[in-house]
Design goal:
This protein has two domains: about 5-65, no CATH class; about 70-285, MetI-like fold (Orthogonal Bundle), CATH 1.10.3720.10. Helices cover about 75% and strands about 0% of the residues. The protein is built from 15 helices and no strands. The longest helix is centred in the N-terminal third of the chain and has 34 residues, at about 75-110. The radius of gyration is 24 Å and the shape is globular. About 30% of the residues are buried. The mean pLDDT is about 85.
Length: about 290
């Protein structure tokens, strides 16, 4: 048996093509166990036949039915929560984009002292547990009469999603040539004109990438929404908690709501894969 130069180099470095295949196979198996197995169990719960139930030691349900899906899709509370979650997600995404643009521009193009401290301050909502942020903000929102309201939920979710948009936009604006911005200023462009005609058109991949991350984060947000909005503002995660955290745990209905909650996020990431370049998302996520 003879080895060519490339095989010799791989063996010398302690890594062969077979090792790469085994590592890939191991990572794929781990991903299937961590993500696939819980989804399979939830899917089985959602199709469990209420007439027979599903009890130990049965590994699989004795029979399947669509009763829980029919009940969930015809439940007005779940339909209302889905529409409310989508509406809040869109509002949070738009508000976050408007607030993040000037901050991202300053971090990307303006030299000033304590820039690293400002960046850490922006990332603070991601570092501090969400429930602590929600409790601290809730005290102020009580005085402003923003608790138990949709605007209050939008504002508190914006606090948590703003770091995503700021960091992705910062990475995108850094790639805009300074000569373009200087030329626009020399022609008399003010801040609004600069943002409208230069930053927004050239940074649109960052807006899309940050917007998708923001929408997903808002759509699945529970802690801040629950503390500020519940029980009057019922989003899908709050509805899911009522089935899993109440006195009576309803696994089948919770499983159905889980898949309803998962579907829009899968659509969002599919669109991100089709529309965005990998370097746009990677550069922004690298700064997180």
């Amino acid at each position: 048996m003879t080895l060519d130069l490339s095989d010799t180099r791989r063996v010398r470095d302690g890594f062969t093509a077979d090792d790469g295949r085994w590592i890939t196979l191991g990572l794929g198996a781990a991903l299937a166990i961590v993500l696939g197995l819980p989804l399979i169990v939830a899917l089985l719960w959602s199709f469990m036949d209420p007439a027979t139930g599903w009890f130990a030691p049965d590994i699989l349900p004795p029979s399947l039915a669509t009763d829980h899906w029919r009940d969930a899709t015809t439940n007005p509370a779940i339909a209302k929560a889905l529409c409310l979650s989508i509406g809040i997600g869109v509002a949070v995404t738009l508000l976050t984009a408007v607030l993040a643009l000037p901050t991202a521009y300053a971090l990307a193009k303006l030299p000033f002292r304590m820039k690293r401290a400002v960046e850490l301050f922006i990332l603070a909502p991601l570092i501090v547990p969400g429930i602590i942020v929600a409790v601290g903000i809730g005290t102020m929102f009580f005085r402003l009469d923003l608790v138990y309201t949709v605007p209050g939920v939008i504002l508190v979710q914006t606090v948590g999603t703003l770091p995503f948009m700021v960091r992705v936009l910062t990475a995108t604006i850094e790639s805009i040539p300074n000569d373009v911005i200087a030329a626009a200023r020399s022609l008399g462009a003010g801040p609004l004109s600069l943002a409208r005609h230069i930053l927004v058109p050239l940074a649109w991949p960052g807006f899309i990438a940050g917007g998708l991350l923001t929408f997903v984060a808002s759509f699945e947000e529970f802690e801040k929404t629950f503390i500020i909005g519940a029980p009057f503002v019922q989003t899908l995660p709050v509805i899911l908690w009522t089935y899993l955290g109440g006195r009576v745990i309803v696994f089948p209905t919770a499983a159905v709501v889980t898949f309803i909650l998962l579907a829009p996020m899968l659509v969002v990431f599919f669109l991100a894969q089709r529309v965005l370049r990998d370097d746009v998302m990677a550069s922004g996520m690298g700064k997180l």
